[in-house]
Amino acid sequence: MRRGWTVVLALSLAAALGGCIRIPDSGPVHSADTVTAAPGDQGQRFEPRGPQPGESSQELVRHFFEAMTASPMSVTVARQFLTKSASSDWRPERGFLVYSSKVSPSGSDTVRVNLTGVNRFDSRGAWQERASGGEHDLSFRIETENGERRIASVPDLLMVSEPWFETQTLPLSLYFFDPDTRTLVPEPVFVPRGDQMPTLLIRSLLEGTPDPRIEQTFVPAGTTLSGLSVTVRADGVAEIPLSGDLANAPEQTVELMAAQFAWTLRQVQGVNAIRITVDGEPLPLSGGGPDYPVSRAASFDPAGTHTLGELYGLHDGVVVRVVDGEEEPVLGPFGQRDIGARTFAVNLDASRLAAITASGTRVVLGGLSESDESRARTVVRDGVDLLKPSWDVASRLWLVDRNGGRAVVSVLLEDDEGSVTRQVVEVPGVSGRDVVDLTISRDGTRLVAALRGPDGDRIVLSRIFVAGAEAQVRSTNARRIVVGAGERLQIRDLGWRSPTSLFYLNVLGGRQANLRSALIDGSPTAFDPAAYSGVFPDLGTRVVTSPRPEEPTYLQRAGGGYQGVGEGSPAIPEGVTALTYVG
């Protein structure tokens, strides 16, 4: 699999050598989950000079670093600083090493360079880690070739500065399906800007899923791009030329493969449909025509497909639906009487509701209709300090009990007969810790938790999957995605900003609320052109968010009531508490 991902960056650099890539300095930002750039965009050019006669070893290495920041992206000049053998062996397509600053090179036969603020990205552009201590030492062996100094050893990476990386790449996603084919699942990657962007995205999809426990692909094995690139026509149709045994693929497989392609390429500005060709002929699709509109894949949107603009809250203990600033009681038992809840969650199709009682010890489950099946009943009685629950697309209800600083994570499933089973889910790095808040992505593949610690709070993420003969819910080891950089975080709440980004509410000086965004892959916010940070004078207690960027974000004031974050947010009726979207 690693070799396959290497094709992505290799294609970018190889195309650059032929002068085919145009990489812009900036691109329009349309929303938190769809950062797009026009394929034909190009930015300021930088054409580095090659090695100069009589350069010292330190000058040679310094100018080699400059050459790696060519724009449009190219390593043609950078290779001129290497010996013939080193140039032949160098594989910069195997990943990025991104640094915030570097110490001037030192040494003669071996030149050493110290980099600080180092982040690593793999060959597909997925963020891997921040170097331990934020520093990385590199050594370059110098040899004399044809009377001039040249670099004889170099890491198989493209080593570039943060400003270059920020302007030359975009945070996008590859889309695969969840194991039950209910929804698409995003996998964040940073992709070079320019004409090659659609091609890079499709080639990445063709290489398959990074973890088949979590997601699946419907691209038949052996499928490849038959042409050099994916082209975007003037009418917005992206043509994807493929080779492989697609003529015998089941109709459903082709349809789901098209959904993956379409939802991935919708991130490229101007793409409104795709056309898949095999050996030059359009691949038949179930819609009857050769083109697949990107909107056809909207039913698999990982942000959810519910009605926009619907919020839910409590008013005098009764659950109400809030639409365009107006409230009305919901149908069923929760809209008829005070249910004694402190918080609650509505499932994604707004048919079921789970409430946490005021004591934080019980879970009450029921429907949002007037049928007999909507009766409210207690399904958990042994809680200690239950936080707000979460629903995912599989109708799993996720619970976290703070349990005196020794958190217990569990999931409830209700079958067609109404029988409820509960499974405790061991989440390494979260279970048994002091959990401030926990939330599940709507696609059901990511668990995010805010943890309290002696040196300040941190946010961690774990991937969710089902395994074993009894289909037990399991998780990967939680890894840190947000930690205070030179500050002590005091997190109050978490929420999804998009399927690939979060909002978290941090306390500043004990008197102000700081609402910030973060990317779920753990990469620095400096690499996110849609990053957000806002300070509010009234200490907020909760943030009400939706992964659909069309839906407004609200901050709950310490003194009561809600205020919209940004302009145009409908007012929330006075007296409404525990405000929430579905999920």
TrEMBL record:
List the InterPro entries.
Answer: GerMN (IPR019606), LpqB_C (IPR018910), LpqB_N (IPR059026)
Give the signal peptide as a residue range, or say none if absent.
Answer: none
Q: Name one Pfam family in it.
A: Gmad1
Q: Where is this region: Disordered?
A: 31-57
**Domain GerMN intervals:** 198-287
Protein name (record): GerMN domain-containing protein
Q: What lineage, starting at the top, does this entry show?
A: unclassified sequences, metagenomes
